[in-house]
Amino acid sequence: MLLISCGGEKQIGIQLYSVHQDFADVEAMLEKIADAGYNTIETLSWQGDPCLGLSPEDYKSLCDRLGLSITSTHTLIPIQADDMESTMAAWRNHFSIMQRLGAKYSIIPGMNFGSTLAEVKSTCDYCMKVGELAQEYGLKLGYHNHQGDFVKVEGVTLLDYVIQNTDPDKFFIQLDVCPMNMGGADPMHYLKSYPDHIRVLHLKDEGVLGESGKIDIEAIFKQFYSNGWSDFYAEYELPFRIGDNETENKSNLNKMWSGVKACADYLKEAKFVK
Predict the structure, then answer these.
(1) Greatest distance between any 2 Cα atoms in the chain
(2) Secondary structure tally for the chain: helices H, strands E
(3) Domain 13-269, what fold?
(4) Which of 259, 274, 270, 272 is nearest to 14 (CA)?
(5) pLDDT digits (tens, 9 = 90+) for 70-115
(6) Separation of first and last alpha carbons in the chain
(7) How much is the pLDDT for 171?
(8) Of all residues in the chain, what percent are helix, strand and coil, respectively (each to 5)?
(9) For residue range 28-47, what is the model confidence (pLDDT) as tens digits?
(10) For residues 129 and 87, is the Cβ–Cβ distance under 8 A?
(11) Does the reported pTM lie above 0.85?
(12) What are the sequence ranges of the domains in the chain?
């Protein structure tokens, strides 16, 4: 499922976790996202709600007014092993909401696949069932990697086993290329080895995209496009929490928004980003 730009405009996406410290006023936050240069968002189930406290209709209407397309979300619904019917009902409710928002993807932002290959295979089978359910709502189910997905389980790299035991049409990978989330693995290896599975990119650096020099973002994009895919989301993260010191809070939020805009500028100006 390729994201095609309209009128030659680049589609610049962002994962809203980047600005979760400023969720108090959702409308103002989304206005800042649009002003920073983004036109595509990947929302997240904040306190279990992918619409951040709004109804799906109001959330979509607000984003539409601001020129923001809601194309994806990060959501994990806990497995109730003794009540799978309730688990699947929760997924149905979530997929229905995302369908109403006009999204294409629903991404699981990390999970415990198991400590043995038998457990991992069982979890893969579960993900495939959830992926089949997502298809009923016109969505694709994906998985976002973290460092722990590159450990060895019975001598096999966990993420490789997951990829090799799932159908990408039902359960694809959203590759986070940040070194801290790659567990020392090379993102280019995965892009070249599993071109059908790596269908969405998550772009996160140690700060503003491209500034660390530790990620060959141009090579990653070129290989990703060559594989036939194009959707991506930037994520910018600063290690701070909103506290009681208003002066410090204002300074931190200003730094956050400055970094968020700098990431958008980098992607808009990069000639290798289509």
Answers:
(1) 52
(2) 9, 10
(3) TIM Barrel (3.20.20)
(4) 259
(5) 999 999 998 888 899 999 999 999 999 999 999 999 999 999 999 9
(6) 16
(7) 98
(8) 45, 15, 40
(9) 999 999 999 999 999 999 88
(10) no
(11) yes
(12) 13-269
